[in-house]
Specification:
The complex is a heterodimer of chains A (about 100) and B (about 650). Chain A has one domain. Chain A is mainly α and about 100 residues long. Chain A has 4 helices and 2 strands; from the N terminus they run H-H-H-E-E-H. In chain A, strands 1-2 form a two-stranded antiparallel sheet. Chain B has about 650 residues and is mostly helical. Chain B contains 29 helices and no strands. The chains are: A mainly alpha (about 100), B mainly alpha (about 650). The interface between A and B is large, with 55 and 55 residues. Chain A: This is DUF485 domain-containing protein.
């Protein structure tokens, strides 16, 4: 298996790659930090602000339950949003980069 | 060559069976299922967070007045064994088919990269949702309400890290193992060796917990003795992995995930049918149930709180009945959120798909399956609390592990008794398939680390032809599986629940920091990988060794003395001629023995040095710091120069597509 040799340094300096890399890093780490903060609000909130978790919202269903349930929908939301952006922007930029380099 | 393995597998089962017989014959052999005290029940619930400590569990008074109906869980053995046979037959068919396709190392470890995103998504879900989440979490909800549900959230959120940080780069940068990713721009030999050790450690902890849980569960469900269950599960697991490799393992996981979701969905449907599809009314029923109110008021009484009526019912929907130590809870959350992405058997699943896009798609599909399942567990757990009452559930198993199964039987029996038996047998079979799917994934991950990293790349310098690589892979799978059976047999009496927490903690503190830094930090190098892996792993193991997870005879004795005092007081208060109930008398006898205990823990301690059960909050930062400091202390120009290649590869997939086809 003869693997093709690429000039990795040159590709890394290509403006298209730099654009892809900046967009991706900002997006990925930004949303990752957001999701972590949102998740840890649950155990921290349950332990230190139980009063808020007890507030009834719909019938006997309280804020705590709604908040825990929201974790699922927020996670799914982030996943779908990421897949949308990645399919649209990141994959397109990658394809354009590869075409441009005639690889 | 296959004949050798067939012969060896047969020999293994015979030897194992002989071993079991010998054990059985020994006079000391206790009944396979020890009384389902909290300790015996714990392994099936991998609830590392706040599992009741022994003293507490013993102190839990048996219901003061005998419950009107003595609940028990009886399976129809014929139907249940029939269902097991169907599952074994189907999966064996898959193995035979998969064995024909497994010719190269890539086929064995990564199904030749030929799994689609959707298939991989189902397989990830099947690999991840252990019997603990299936039986344990709905059990926790049925006994402790809100806290059980809160506990399940972290298991899904963990996949955000997998999706955003590791899935696609790993697909683009790696081949079969964690060592592949880490050794890219470092000195391959030491890095692979350390990565393999860490992989084997994590897989062994997790595998042991699963095996012991499996044995106890099978014993409880269908009355197969513990040792026979371990051997049965073990031989099947070895068979799937040795002959079918990743293709068979993947399909066993997909089948299991499908069965699990159908079972959970059907049962939730029946629960909601009873509630008239009115979720608000469903929750009101919980609050107004006198049995739940009674159960909660007893639970909070331990903390010196008096609650009754609707207040106690409402309390069931509020946090704090089970997860009591916030720091421990946060620490567990950290281990879950970061550890899942560092689990070798999860990482390995990304090498089975052809592209980064497929890896992404598979995580998203897995997230919907896993999330959907955990939302359904609320309905199952609360449904069990309403229809079976917490008192009825604890009669069968104090840990609540049987709640889902009891609910299935009851919901089915409400239609017709035979449907109850069928439904129960179906869920038992799902539990069985679950165990097989999870343990197979773990054996494959451990054997890949030994065969691919240590044997092929360290010992043979990467010079091994396909035939030799596949042979090494099969042979190590066989050995790893056989070791798994031996450990499972040896650990019967051990409390292994903390091993799950330990596996996640080691993955989060040892593996994940070095994976993230390898992928995203230019200055990272060999010294960083080794110091990160070493410090993270040692810190998490060390902290668990001095944590409350270990047994401290003096602490147990102190707790037992309190129980003895309470029970004797209770006895003194009884009218003349009456004696303690059977449960109380048993508890008293056990406490009297425990109160005599003296000595120190395995580490020579009187009481825990580190007060949290989950070491993540300390060991994860330590792992990151060690990795960063190690890299900064021994800078390496070549590693920095090669970062461009790693970074371009992981973002674009260049140089990867061809590597798959060899």
């Amino acid at each position: 298996m003869a693997e093709r040799q690429y000039d990795w340094k040159a590709i890394a300096k290509n403006p298209k790659f730099v654009e892809l890399h900046h967009k991706k890093t900002a997006f990925l780490f930004g949303w990752w930090i957001f999701s972590c903060v949102y998740y840890f609000l649950l155990p921290i909130g349950a332990a230190y602000t139980p009063g808020i978790f007890k507030v009834k919202m719909i019938g006997v269903v309280n804020f705590g339950y709604v908040f825990a349930l929201s974790q699922f929908f927020v996670s799914w939301g982030i996943a779908l949003y990421y897949s949308h952006v990645a399919n649209k922007d990141f994959d397109r930029l990658t394809r354009e980069l590869i075409d441009e380099l005639h690889l | 060559m296959k004949k050798i393995f067939i012969a060896a597998t047969l020999a293994l089962s015979v030897a194992a069976a002989a071993f079991a017989e010998e054990q059985k014959a020994a006079p000391a052999a206790a009944p396979a299922v020890s009384a389902p005290a909290a300790q015996g029940a714990a392994p099936a619930v991998a609830a590392p967070a706040a599992q009741l400590n022994q003293a507490q569990a013993v102190a839990t008074p048996a219901p003061a007045k005998p419950a009107p109906v003595k609940r028990e869980l009886k399976t129809n053995r014929t139907i249940t064994i029939g269902m097991f046979m169907v599952i074994i037959a189907i999966t064996m068919g898959v193995v035979v088919w998969a064995a024909k396709q497994t010719k190269t190392a890539s086929d064995f470890y990564a199904a030749g990269g030929g799994i689609t995103g959707t298939q991989n998504g189902w397989a990830i879900a099947g690999d991840y949702m252990s019997a603990a989440s299936f039986l344990g979490i709905s059990g926790l909800i049925s006994l402790y309400g809100y806290d059980g549900f809160m506990y399940s959230v972290g298991w899904l959120v963990a996949y955000i890290t997998v999706l955003l940080i590791v899935a696609e780069p790993c697909r683009n940068a790696g081949k079969y193992t964690l060592g592949d990713i880490l050794s890219f721009r470092t000195s391959p030999k030491p890095v692979r060796a350390f990565a393999a050790i860490s992989t084997v450690a994590v897989s062994t902890f997790y595998l042991t917990a699963q095996m012991v849980g499996a044995g106890k569960l099978m014993a409880l469900l269908v009355g197969i003795p513990y040792k026979m269950s371990i051997i049965g599960v073990g031989v099947l697991m070895v068979g799937y992995v040795v002959f079918g490799g990743m293709v068979a393992t993947t399909w066993v996981q997909i089948i299991k995930a499908g069965l699990l979701m159908s079972g959970a969905f059907l049962l939730s449907f029946l629960v909601m049918l009873k509630a008239g599809f009115n979720p608000i009314g469903f929750f009101s029923t919980i609050v107004s149930s006198p049995d739940i109110q009674d159960h909660v008021s007893k639970l909070v009484l331990k903390d010196g709180v008096i609650l009754a009526g609707a207040d106690a019912g409402q309390r069931f929907l509020e946090p704090g009945l089970y997860l009591k130590n916030p720091l421990d809870q946060i620490s567990l959350g950290m281990a879950l959120v970061l550890g899942t992405a560092g689990m070798p058997h999860i990482l390995m699943r990304f090498f089975t798909v052809p592209t980064a896009q497929a890896a992404r798609k598979s995580v998203i599909i897995a997230m919907f399956i896993i999330g959907g399942f955990y939302i359904l567990t609320t309905l199952l757990g609360f449904g069990a609390a309403i229809h079976l009452t917490p008192q009825g559930i604890t009669q069968v198993d104090p840990g609540g592990n049987m709640a889902t199964l009891m609910l299935a039987q009851q919901m089915g029996a409400d239609i017709a008794p035979v449907i109850g038996d069928l439904f129960l047998a179906f869920l038992c079979a799902v539990a069985f398939a679950t165990i097989l799917a999870v343990v197979s994934g773990l054996v494959l991950a451990a054997s890949a680390a030994i065969a691919h990293d240590i044997y092929v790349n360290v010992i043979k310098d990467g010079h091994a032809d396909q035939h030799e690589q596949v042979f090494a892979a099969r042979a190590t799978s066989f050995v790893v599986g056989a070791c798994g059976i031996m450990i499972g047999l040896a650990a019967e009496k051990q409390n292994v629940a903390h091993l799950v927490a330990l596996a996640f903690a080691v993955a989060a503190s040892g593996n994940l920091p070095v994976v993230i830094l390898s992928l995203f930090w230019r200055k990272f190098n060999t010294a960083g990988v080794i110091s990160g892996l070493l410090v993270g792993t040692i810190a998490s193991i060390g902290l668990v060794m001095v944590s409350p997870n270990m047994t401290y005879p003096k602490v147990v004795a102190a707790g037992a003395k309190k129980v003895v005092a309470a029970m004797e007081k209770k006895q003194a208060a009884l009218p003349a001629g009456e004696t303690l109930s059977e449960n109380d008398a048993k508890a008293l006898a056990k406490a009297k023995v425990d109160a005599q205990k003296d000595g120190t823990s395995m580490m020579g301690l009187d009481k825990p040095l580190f007060t949290l059960k989950n070491p993540g909050i300390v060991s994860i930062p330590l792992g990151f710091m060690a990795a960063i400091l190690g890299a900064l202390a021994f800078p390496n120009r070549r590693s920095e120069e090669m970062f461009d290649e790693v970074y371009v590869r992981q973002n674009t997939g260049l140089g990867m597509a061809k590597a798959v086809e060899h």
